Amino acid sequence: MSEARTGTDHYVDASTQPETRGIEVIGDSERHGRARDLFFVWAAPGVSILNFTIGATLILLGLEIWQAIAVIVAASLLWVFPGLIAASGPAAGTSGSVVTRAMYGIIGNKLFVAFVGWFIGAVFLSLTWLASSFMGADLLRRIGLDDPVWVPIGVTVVVSAVTVLVAIFGHGLILRIYPVMAVVLFVIFILVSAFILPTVDWGYAAPEPLGGVALWSAISVGFTILASTPLSFINSPDIARYLPRSTKPSHIAAATALGGALPFIVFTSVGVLLATGLKASAFDAGIDVALFDLLPGWIGPLLVVGVIVNTIALNAMTTYTSSMALQAIGFRLRRIPAAIVVGVVGTALTIYLVLSSSLLEAANLLLQFLVIVSGPAMAIYVVDVLRRHYVYDGVDLFDDRRGGRYWYTGGWSIPGIAALLLGGLATAMCLATDVWAGPIAQALGHVDLSVPVGMAVSAIVYAVLSRTRLGKEGRL
Is-contact 437 446, C-beta < 8 A? Predict the structure, then answer.
């Protein structure tokens, strides 16, 4: 069996000390907290300028205000999926990157976590650090520090360092400070929204009203961009795993889903309204620059603080869970050194994007391609927790011997791997982006059905194959 199985010493999950626990199984005596604590943990990352950016994109696609908000509400319903899988954390007492061994097998899961888990983590680390880098650099430019290379790099490095520090202190600190972060961010972004509202064109009409296939293309592409956010949080079990085993899954699902969905709806809708009052040249300059130009001078620094706090909230969580993913892959690293490695990789990717793209371009393209892996992976996870009724044995998940419960076929779960590959292929064939349009998307006039089709294919393939001998646990 692998070395990291259960915590042998009693561990105290406190906010005042670095968390040394990694993927080890959490004993019942060490469990604590309530499901409702998760609400603010998920709300803080959602109060984001990235939501402003995504909302503005819907207007750029040619949608009317009511159409854009309807798409936002529809996409917000997908937050139920991170909620549903979150309860597998306390059920197994370990991280989601270990629980997925039940879906992909001991060896198959290593590749899944390495490519799928790390890809999702890297994208969100870079996107949110990118936002803070652009806005921090723009603020410094306005006070005279305008080096186009070293200023954004400097902002990225400073924010990254603070983010990794929070991830090092881990779960206890996250539970303690995220409620405060959520309140601070809500106040800042509501204040910013109040100054945006007078600029809104409430009678806005798209320059060229869309209809027919063109309308459905815009709606579907917008939905795909929005859907990538909730579908990417396959790490929700990691945050919930310290909860007592008796905590109701429905309560965990509700707190996680509502915490993510409510700020998602509010601030993405504000981004829609913001875009109605902007000229085309403002989009060319960037949403971050446009915001600064709309706001009184004294609010600009406050907005940058909000962006940086939100960046730390989202990326500290991502770095924290990605550090455990490194352990689940098989790297013999303690969680704290693993968090530092994750931070260095994310920082390097962010610096590359800072020097090569705009926030709007980077966000839209990366979020669309993200669903190729995040949608199928989320669908498989949801099917698995529902068919098992949240029954996972944490000790069995660490049994990596041939013939162990999750060894399956030579260390691979054929149902999980097949569902992931076929779902990803179906997603890619239905995806419509500026640089790639799958054959199905092209045949439909660039209508993007990647999310529903990819998730449906993965869910059906996994559910069917899991009932055959290929899904029999413990095979050699």
Answer: yes
- Helix 212-232 crosses helix 359-388 at what angle (to 10 degrees)? 70
Domain that includes residue 175, residue range: 33-367
* Nearest alpha carbon to residue 31 among 41, 21, 39: 21
- pLDDT band with cut points at 50, 70 and 90 for residue 10: low
- In this structure, is residue 328 part of a structural domain? yes
**Which of 74-83, 212-221, 285-294, 433-442 is least confident?**
285-294
Annotate 59-72 with DSSP letters as a single string. HHTT--HHHHHHHH
Report how far residue 275's alpha carbon sits from residue 204's, in angstroms, rounded to the nearest whole number.
10
Outline where 330-446 has alpha helix (H). Answer: 335-354, 359-388, 394-397, 414-430, 439-443
Which CATH number characterizes residue 359's domain? 1.10.4160.10
H-type alpha helices, 170-295: 171-196, 212-232, 236-240, 249-276, 280-285, 287-294
Q: Which two tokens stand for residue 280?
A: 């085309």
Tokens found for residue 220: 């579907």
Two tokens, residue 424: 């990803």
The pLDDT, as a whole number, for residue 341 is: 86
Separation between Cα atoms, residue 345 and residue 349, nearest integer Å: 6
- Would you tell me how many other CB atoms lie within 10 Å of the CB of residue 197? 12
Cα Rg of the chain, angstroms: 22
Cα–Cα distance measured from residue 41 to residue 25, given in angstroms and rounded to the nearest whole number? 22
Question: Is the entire prediction scored with pTM above 0.85?
Answer: yes
Name the token pair of 8.
Answer: 């042998």
Number of domains in the chain: 1
Position 197, amino acid? L
How far is C-alpha 327 from the geometric centre of its chain's CA atoms? 20
